[in-house]
Design a protein that fits this description.
Length: about 120
Amino acid sequence: MPKLPKAFTQFSDTYPDLAEAYETLAGSCHKAGPLSKRERALVKLGIAIGARQEGALHSHTRKALELGILPEEIRHAAILALTTVGFPNMMAALTWMEDLLPAKKKGKGKGSKRGK
């Protein structure tokens, strides 16, 4: 299991009852519907992108990778946000994702018309 962010561990240490209640609520939310773990992970990425929450995006990127979601699929989640949240927000999300994703191989991006 990856190391949790310092701010979250400090919060949990200071307010253990609240942290436990938060984790219980999160678990209940995940069990409340028919979406698979994979689908829920992609939805959570989309929410973090739309809310422009860097910490949440880092967390959900890590969780998506742990579930076996491919880096290209995670990046695609950000690309899909372009027409909804705008170019600057999409670029911010991609930048934050890249903090955690393996380096993208040059020339492998689909949709590029350069050099064609």
